[in-house]
Amino acid sequence: MSTALLHIKQIAIERAEEVELKLEPAEIAAMMVDLGDYELDSPEDFEVTVRAQRVGDLTVRLTGDAWAKLTYTCGRCLERRHLEVESLFEYVLVPKPVWSDRFEGTDEVALSEDELDMDTYEGDEIDVRPFIREALALELPAFSPCTVQDEAECDEAYARLVGDEVEKELEEATVDLRWSKLAELKKQMSED
Ligand SMILES: [Zn+2]
Predict the structure, then answer these.
(1) Quick one: pLDDT band at residue 112, thresholds 50, 70, 90?
(2) 100 and 14 co-located in one domain
(3) Count of alpha carbons within 13 Å of 180, Cβ hemisphere only?
(4) Separation of 150 CA from ligand 1 center, angstroms?
(5) Among 73, 126, 158, 177, which is 20 to 30 Å from 48 by CA?
(6) Which residue would you say has higher pLDDT here, 157 or 171?
(7) pTM for this predicted structure
(8) What 8-state DSSP symbol labels residue 79?
């Protein structure tokens, strides 16, 4: 059984206790999928600490700190780059039936921000993996160019990528522009 499954009754009441998570490399790999343009190259590029606490009988508060080094392709220079993300997360989970009883049919506008922020669980176990994954996914930028540190390299790689040909075309276009300006000037002068 995965250490990522927390049995509700074993979660400490009114005090946050660190969960002994010993995620297998395969579990980490399976968890960190579908992150858009980002990929986890190795399970070693991932760390997480989770604390769990029961507030009352069945409401569970998960807090923690997740970190990952992800790889992506820069949309500009097409080089592979790394991005480190960290997330300090907090989830408040209530059993689904409880949530439904309390809020179903309620106009969303009538719910307070805290109530809207609640997540639900079913059965008597909570799998912490989807929450860890979501916390990190929320930190990822939608557009992924090189970071500022790699900016110069990105420029160079981009220049290599578009090649000399495009550069030459650009130069020619500039020359054409200059010529046309000159021609215009000449035309104006002859008209005067
Ligand atoms: Zn780049």
Answers:
(1) confident
(2) yes
(3) 6
(4) 7
(5) 73
(6) 157
(7) 0.76
(8) -
Question: Do 31 and 118 sit in the same domain of this protein?
Answer: yes
Same domain as 186, residue 135: no
Q: How far is the CA of 142 from the centre of ligand 1 (A)?
A: 15
Q: How many other CB atoms sit within 10 Å of the CB of residue 17?
A: 14
CA 183 / ligand 1 centre spacing (Å): 40
- Please give the residue range of the domain that contains residue 167: 148-192
155 & 142 share domain = no
Contact indicator for 159, 43 with CB cutoff of 8 Å: no
Centroid of ligand 1 to alpha carbon of 147 (angstroms) = 8
CA of 118 to the centre of ligand 1 (A): 38
Give tens-digit pLDDT for 23-53.
999 999 999 999 988 999 999 999 999 999 9
Query: pLDDT-derived band of residue 130, with 50, 70 and 90 as boundaries?
Result: very high
Q: Are residues 28 and 115 in the same domain?
A: yes
**134 C-alpha to ligand 1 centroid (Å):** 26
Domain count for the chain, please give it: 2
Distance CA 74, CA 67 (A): 21
Ligand 1 centroid from CA 88, angstroms:
28
* Shared domain check, 97 and 133: yes
Neighbours of ion ligand 1 (CB under 5 A): 74, 76-77, 146, 154
Instruction: Band the pLDDT of 179: cuts 50, 70, 90.
Output: low
**Statement to judge: residues 135 and 70 lie in one domain:** yes
